[in-house]
UniProtKB/TrEMBL annotation, chain A:
It comes from the Bacteria. The keyword Membrane does not apply. Belongs to the MinE family. GO terms for biological process: cell division; regulation of division septum assembly. HAMAP family: MinE. Prevents the cell division inhibition by proteins MinC and MinD at internal division sites while permitting inhibition at polar sites. This ensures cell division at the proper site by restricting the formation of a division septum at the midpoint of the long axis of the cell. NCBIfam families: minE (TIGR01215), PRK00296.1 (NF001422). The gene is minE. SUPFAM superfamilies: Cell division protein MinE topological specificity domain. InterPro entries: MinE, MinE_sf. This is Cell division topological specificity factor. The keyword Oxidoreductase does not apply. It comes from Methylobacterium soli.
UniProtKB/TrEMBL annotation, chain B:
GO terms for cellular component: cytoplasmic side of plasma membrane; cytosol. Keywords: ATP-binding, Cell cycle, Cell division, Nucleotide-binding, Septation. GO terms for biological process: division septum assembly; negative regulation of cell division. ATP binds at K11, G12, G13, V14, G15, K16, T17, T18. The lineage of its organism: Bacteria, Pseudomonadati, Pseudomonadota, Alphaproteobacteria, Hyphomicrobiales. This is Septum site-determining protein MinD. It comes from the Bacteria.
């Protein structure tokens, strides 16, 4: 250890403290999540999984509580083939709808 | 009114068993009757730390299953007649503990003793949750070290959700015992300070147990540290903890072992 190091050393404890505060805040948010969100997450996943193969860890569900309204946000990353199928289905429905209007 | 206290931590090797034995002996010395219960089925050690390993005949699982009466399984301490030990089973696995059986044994212990101290196994599995289930209060044992503090935070979460008190909507009293603390290293910035740990865990501090050779010395000979050398730093810290548990206001300090000038000189060199 150089002389400079001895004087500028602030010790490893502050690093430990910062790391702990971060990880614990994160874990508390995870474990403290309300049961309703857990249930919603499971059931929504089950419905989607019936039609599209999705990876559970690519799904994010969050509830944000505002003053007037709360929102339930779903963010699901679809695998490529499933995404292609969904877009195809949508274009088909749109085409059918157009036909119906024309007729 | 008897009190059931669980000594828990999440992480292993931080001093749960040492703390259970030390608190048990100090409470018994103060005149209250106390039973220390080992919940670490399969890895029992409280008997060894208390020096009663050769006197175990029946254990917690025998009593839970009704194979033995509680009185048959209890081991009276040879040094303190107010202190008893209920050992864990060494051969069976923890699934042998039934909820109803444990509830019955805890009820019986409450009738017999002023204090029941449950020594929890490490981890957050069934053994640990059963040990805390019937508690009125908890002592969380933590080292000033990142993994121990993180695990203690998990355990505090379980204490607030998995205990009978928590399920009833009541609050379970929780206390922190910080073990293996070295004030010199904390001052140098190389160990989490007491305030750091308290700020993160936010439960009240019951005692600071300084790092000390006396702890190993006591377990070597199978004697709670509070009995083996009552004047040693850890023994005084545990004795203060017991006075606080009994409602006395004792100023918080980090006791230190007295060392000769030469002793100090050599310790510094070693560190």
């Amino acid at each position: 250890m150089s002389l400079l190091n001895i004087f500028s050393r602030r010790g490893s404890a502050p690093v430990a403290r910062e790391r702990l505060q971060l990880i614990i805040a994160h874990e508390r948010a995870d474990h403290g999540r309300s049961d309703l969100v857990v249930i919603l997450r499971e059931e929504i996943l089950a419905v989607i999984a019936k039609h599209v193969a999705i990876e559970p860890d690519k799904v994010q569900i969050k509830v944000e509580r505002g003053e007037g309204v709360s929102t339930l946000g779903l963010d699901i990353e679809l695998p490529l083939p499933a995404a292609a199928r969904l877009t195809a289905a949508r274009t088909e429905t749109a085409a059918k709808a157009k036909q119906a209007v024309a007729a | 009114m008897s009190k059931v206290l669980v000594v828990t931590s999440g992480k292993g090797g931080v001093g749960k068993t040492t703390t259970t034995a030390a608190l048990g002996a100090a409470i018994a010395q103060s005149g209250s009757s106390v039973c220390v219960v080992d919940f670490d089925v399969g890895l029992r050690n409280l008997d060894l730390v208390m020096g009663a390993e050769r006197r175990v005949v029946y254990d917690l699982i025998n009593v839970v299953n009704g194979d033995a009466k509680l009185a048959q399984a209890l081991i009276r301490d040879k040094r303190l007649d107010k202190l008893a030990l209920l050992p864990a089973s060494q051969t069976r696995d923890k699934d042998a503990l039934t909820d109803a059986g444990v509830a019955r044994v805890m009820e019986e212990l409450r009738e017999k003793f002023d204090w029941v101290i449950c020594d929890s196994p490490a981890g957050i599995e069934r053994g640990a949750t059963l040990a805390m289930r019937h508690a009125d209060m908890a002592v969380v044992v933590t080292n000033p070290e990142v993994s121990s503090v993180r695990d203690s935070d998990r355990i505090i979460g379980l204490l607030d959700s998995k205990t009978i008190k928590a399920e009833k909507g009541e609050t379970l009293e929780k206390h922190l015992i910080l073990t293996r603390y070295d004030p010199n290293r904390a001052d140098r910035g190389d160990m989490l300070k007491v305030e750091d740990v308290l700020e993160i865990l936010s439960i009240p501090l019951l005692a600071i147990i300084p790092e000390s050779e006396e702890v190993l010395r006591a377990s070597n000979v199978g004697c709670p540290v509070t009995l083996n050398n009552p004047l040693s730093a850890p023994a005084r810290a545990y004795a203060d903890a017991v006075r606080r548990l009994q409602g006395e206001a004792v100023p918080m300090s980090v006791p230190s072992d007295r060392k000769s000038f030469l002793g100090k000189f050599f310790t510094r060199r070693a560190a």
